[in-house]
Prior knowledge:
alpha/beta; Nucleotidyltransferase, domain 5; 6-stranded mixed β-sheet; 3 helices; 6 strands
Amino acid sequence: MKVAMSVQGQSADSKVDQRFGRCNAFAILDTESGELEFVANHEKDKGSGINAANTILKYNPDAVIVGNIGPKAFQVLSRARLKIYEGLTGSIQESARLLQDGKLKEISSPNN
């Protein structure tokens, strides 16, 4: 499964970022292969959750783990039929592990 999450930096030890549209970057993790890719969020200073969501969609994730996500970004991701989970915490690996262990809640509406 490919999962996207908002992060503070662009390295494997980067901490996650609770802000979806205003994060510095997105990590795209393939939970099966362990491959990790980073994508800069060029929209962070514009506060555009829609553009940030569209950036992620270019990498074809199956799911997104979020801390806080607004209504416009949520709408873009849900229309693309991505599963959206809340509970982003700690590190990239920690959040991925929580998802794989079934400990994250899938959300059906924005939480910010």
